Amino acid sequence: MSFSLAIVGRPNVGKSTLFNRLVGKRLALVDDQPGVTRDLREGAARLGDLRFTVIDTAGLEDADDDSLPARMRRLTERAVEEADVCLFVIDARVGVTPIEESLAEVLRKRSAHVLLAANKAEGRAGESGVLEAYSLGLGEPIPISAEHGEGMEDLYAALQPISDAFAERHAQLASEAARVEEAGEPLIGEDVEEAGEELATPVRDPLKAVQIAVIGRPNAGKSTLVNRILGEDRLLTGPEAGITRDAIGFEIDWGGQRFKVFDTAGMRKKARVQQKLEKLSVGDALRAVKFAEVVILLLDVRAPFETQDLRIADLAAREGRAVVIGVNKWDLEDDKQQKLAQLRESVERLLPQLRGVPMVTLSGLTGKGLDRLHAAVLRAHDAWNIRIPTAPLNRWLLEQSQKHPPPAPSGRRIRLRYMTQAKTRPPTFVVFASRPKDLPESYSRFLVNGLREEFGLAGTPIRLIMKASENPYAEKAAKRKIH
Ligand code: GDP
Ligand code: GDP
Question: Which pLDDT value is given to residue 473?
């Protein structure tokens, strides 16, 4: 992520003209986003090789409740709160007015970093105004012409060290992210490395077994399905060939890929003696889920999504397992079209924690749909193992926060600064934000759903951890003040 720059100044100095020059056609109009009330305009700015967010305060001066200077002050204060850096623009042809003196005072006191630009400086008419601007006590004015594109190199030179400071801070955050502790598995450390920007599909080793478990209520058809998979394998490889059993389950080849199957069906048969009631023990389900990389939740099409099914699905999601839903006994269904629509609706409504979960209709009895089940399981396994490089992640995050900015509780917009993937299996992301505690759950969900769509992560849970990050420029400025 990059920094944000607010353009402030009194009306008519050329703020919008500058905004448009920096943003070009890349303006993100966000006012139509539901649930987002905003007034400051934001856009993705580009200046040379610099990328940042630009915030325009123009056009907000017209509120008629107050005197212009008072409104200007309030607006400037808000811009200071929201942006990392302020660019204070004056009109070089007019020079410094009392409003500008008062705004400069706000900026001197409050902003971590202020740049001063004297606009309309093309030709000679602005020369005296540029000189006058020194009197504002905000450092050397940068003469520019927003309309004619002059002085952009000087603006670039002023922004470049700021951009560097943020980049430096991002590198720190990335290594910090790599240390974020999550129970269990070790962290993947080489996050800062940005090589290989392309999203590589994980290379699958056909000999390394993908661990799966078929779980579901009694009589859903688990044994039948597993036997069918076994049977297909045996047809190809001869009786019992290629099957190895141990205490946990058995290994087979299925469609050219090695799988290790956790045999809950067999387990249940043993337990049946004690459990006269046809009830899946939570202990069994939990063991199966813990063992598996991909959980196939098998439903009976005649009674899908009963409480037990939902509980198992939720368990799998909480344990961070990839999930594929198999709708079994599809051969019994007459109105397949309508049923499918119903099932999809039910999944979205009843299992929001597994949004976008793949659903495969099949018949363990006839073997129909097993090829699709095979493909869905491998895709979910890929998504569960995916590693998304930091650069595309942050490009995506910037885009999202421009399209749908985070809220601004008590007038201060929460900034999403940086994002990295800290872990796989399941994909776990760390987002650094200003005041992450104020970010509503709904915004995290928005990000998770967006990630899912953008990077094709169907069938895997996604973890998102929000962490606090400071404005690096504010820190530097604070240090400077001490000296
Ligand atoms: P804002 O109210 O601060 O957003 O100002 P605008 O961007 O709307 O500009 C106000 C007026 O100044 C418009 O007529 C612009 O065309 C003009 N303007 C903006 N930038 C320049 C510039 O660099 N040179 C000159 N001569 N006029 C400019
Ligand atoms: P489990 O308890 O989940 O292992 O279920 P079983 O595999 O023992 O199957 C329960 C019942 O459903 C048996 O009578 C199976 O023949 C039947 N069954 C399993 N799969 C299918 C299927 O795809 N279609 C139909 N029509 N019946 C099935």
Answer: 58
- Smallest CA-to-CA distance from 158 within 406, 370, 473 is with 473
Cα(12) to centroid(ligand 1), Å: 6
Assess contact for 405 and 264: CB atoms under 8 A. Answer: no
Q: Which ligand is nearest to the CA of 150?
A: 1
Cβ within 8 Å of residue 267, ≥6 positions away: 284, 288
What single DSSP character describes residue 100?
Answer: H
| Strand stretches in 307-445, DSSP E | 322-328, 359-361, 416-423, 428-433
Which residue's CA is the nearest one to ligand 1's atom 22? 120
Greater model confidence, 287 or 377 = 377
> What string of DSSP letters covers 431-463?
EEESSGGGS-HHHHHHHHHHHHHHHT-TTS--E
Reported as type and span, the H/E element at residue 287 is helix 282-291
Give, in order, the Cα–Cα distances in Å from 281 to each of 144, 219, 436. 73, 14, 39
Single pTM value for the model = 0.62
Q: For residue 120, give the ligand nearest its CA.
A: 1
Q: How far is 18 from 118, CA to CA, in rounded Å?
A: 12
Over residues 263-280, the pLDDT tens digits come to 665 444 444 444 444 455
pLDDT tens sequence across 439-469: 999 999 999 999 999 998 988 999 999 988 7
338-387 pLDDT, tens per residue? Answer: 999 999 999 989 998 888 899 999 999 999 999 999 999 999 999 999 98
Banded model confidence at residue 29, pLDDT cuts 50, 70, 90: very low
Residues 29 and 252: their CA atoms lie apart, in Å, by 54
- Cα–Cα distance measured from residue 215 to residue 237, given in angstroms and rounded to the nearest whole number: 26
Cis peptide before 406 (omega within 30 of 0): no
Residue 7 CB less than 6 A away from ligand 1: no
Atom 25 of ligand 1, residue of closest alpha carbon? 120
CA dist 319 → 295, 322, 347 (Å):
11, 9, 19
CA 53 to centroid of ligand 2, rounded, Å: 58
Q: Which of 365, 368, 372, 373 to mutate to test the pocket of ligand 2 (most atoms within 8 A of CB)?
A: 365
